[in-house]
Amino acid sequence: MQYPRPSKLFALGLASIAAAGPCDIYSSGGTPCIAAHSTTRALYSAFSGSLYQVKRGSDNTTTSIAPLSAGGVANAAAQDTFCANTTCLITVIYDQSGRGNHLTQAPPGGFAGPESNGYDNLASATGAPVTLNGQKAYGVFISPGTGYRNNAPSGIVKGDAAEGMYAVFDGAHYNDGCCFDYGNAETNSLDTGNGHMEAIYFGTNTAWGSGAGSGPWLMADFENGLFSGQGSKNNAGDPSISYRFFNTILKGGPNQWAIRGGNAASGSLSTYYSGARPTASGYNPMSKEGAIVLGIGGDNSVSAQGTFYEGIMTSTYPSDATENSVQANIVAAKYATTALTSGTALTIGSSISLRATTSGYSDRYLAHTGSVVNTQVVTSSSATSLKQQASWTVRAGLANGGCVSFESKDISGSYIRHADFVLQVGANDGSKLFKEDATFCPQAGLTQGISIRAWGYPTRWIRHYSNVGYVGSNGGVHAFDAASSFNDDVSFVVSTGFA
Ligand SMILES: *[C@@H]1O[C@H](CO)[C@@H](O)[C@H](O)[C@H]1NC(C)=O
Ligand SMILES: *[C@@H]1O[C@H](CO)[C@@H](O)[C@H](O)[C@H]1NC(C)=O
């Protein structure tokens, strides 16, 4: 082939030299994006605007994070600088399509969110670090209770009109709650009936449909039903997913829909279902309403968890060929895992003690009395039993080896876990929930030493409050979430264990 001469390149302009983004590919296929969301990268080669906004706990101010360059990866370093020594939440996920279809904190609906005003929680800005082509970025880590929404977007399709969408998720972060969704939903946050949604679902909920094996599965949330295929509840062609990065696709039009998926880090897409609409009443024709949800069901069901990296919606039915090109683009973005913790290294197998640093409490250590986790005054002359109660063996994280778990020194096989955000020492029952609730991610302390966030609730940190142990969020709804002295209460000095 002939290469353009430099003068010709110059005339083409930089935008045409930069590799096409997913939405450039959809445009070329005649099915342009009408919403484009990502906290990790620009989805158009020419996009250099704001990807998302974060708010920090220290002064409640916000800043917007843009790509490092047009079409590039998010400037995670700008977030790290802004959020240093405090907590940060993702307040807005901007729409890159130019239509203003931004996602913000979901309001109360059929189900109320956990905030005092019924709104859903916002996601931590630091719960889902990854790299793209070696550059650090952050995804949106959705814990139960967290959700984003836009109930009045522009141009999202209604009724039986055709649309398409894709989303890239963490294939290892899911549960069986309802419903970790991205896509088209009701505009009033209520369940208005069958066929009023068309959203990507990912998880192990089996109340309506399922696929092969034990999940998790990609399914379609059409409201009052998660569908893996046409009529029967189980579609053996819808596989259990074990990809760390999972590209999910849903598209639907008049009596026609499809789900497709693939490893977002390599290879191609497979079609899990393509065919007619469900036969149950209300799904043909559809009655789509045209709102957008992320992390929740159409009626604001908030029990699910998952991680979102990027996703888009169209207002026409994309071709398989267009989606295949987008898959290649996502693979070329080179999503990869990176350290979940930074600024500290706890040695697996070592015994540690954790000293409180809050003024007036700095002679107290994180300890337990039976199943209750508390802080107690411990010295070198304390009884052996108390020294053991204030010592913890560092184990590889039960739910995620990138973080750690804390095994009791005196009750072997029992670990610190949170339940309703209160810390307990409990026996490992081997359940997914126990392992997740017993997994913690330490990092450099907000004021000194280390601070330790709950893996499954990265807005929540191990905190002492009235000398009892919690996972507290900075300024949340519980007394133990109080913003006052939060940074000190979550900062602990690590020493060799008393026992
Ligand atoms: C930030 O806002 C929250 C909620 O309105 C409030 O409780 C908290 O005191 C504020 N923090 C600062 C530092 O202004
Ligand atoms: C910020 O955090 C670092 C790491 O824990 C600590 O060394 C530093 O003293 C903190 N700065 C402030 C102002 O708290």
Automatic annotation (TrEMBL):
Q: Which residues form the active site?
A: 223 (nucleophile), 299 (proton donor)
- Listed InterPro entries: A-L-arabinofuranosidase_B_cat, ABFB, AbfB_ABD, AbfB_ABD_sf, ConA-like_dom_sf
Judged by the first EC level, this protein's enzyme class is: hydrolase
**SUPFAM superfamilies, per this entry?**
AbfB domain, Concanavalin A-like lectins/glucanases
The Enzyme Commission number assigned here is: 3.2.1.55
**Which controlled-vocabulary keywords does the entry list?**
Carbohydrate metabolism, Disulfide bond, Glycoprotein, Glycosidase, Hydrolase, Polysaccharide degradation, Secreted, Signal, Xylan degradation
Which GO biological process entries does UniProt record here? Answer: arabinan catabolic process; L-arabinose metabolic process; pectin catabolic process; xylan catabolic process
Cysteines paired by S-S bonds: 23-33, 83-88, 178-179, 403-441
In the UniProt record, does the keyword Nucleotidyltransferase occur?
no
Instruction: Quote the pathway field.
Output: Glycan metabolism; L-arabinan degradation
What Gene Ontology cellular component terms go with this record? Answer: extracellular region
Q: Where is the signal peptide?
A: 1-20
Query: Can you name one GO molecular function term for this protein?
Result: alpha-L-arabinofuranosidase activity
Report if keyword Zinc is assigned: no
Localization terms from the record: Secreted
Q: Describe the location of the Alpha-L-arabinofuranosidase B catalytic domain by residue ranges.
A: 22-336
Known catalytic reactions? Hydrolysis of terminal non-reducing alpha-L-arabinofuranoside residues in alpha-L-arabinosides
Q: Which residues form the Alpha-L-arabinofuranosidase B arabinose-binding domain?
A: 354-494
Q: Name one Pfam family in it.
A: AbfB
The UniProt similarity line reads: Belongs to the glycosyl hydrolase 54 family.
Protein name (record): Alpha-L-arabinofuranosidase
What is the organism of origin for this protein? Massarina eburnea CBS 473.64
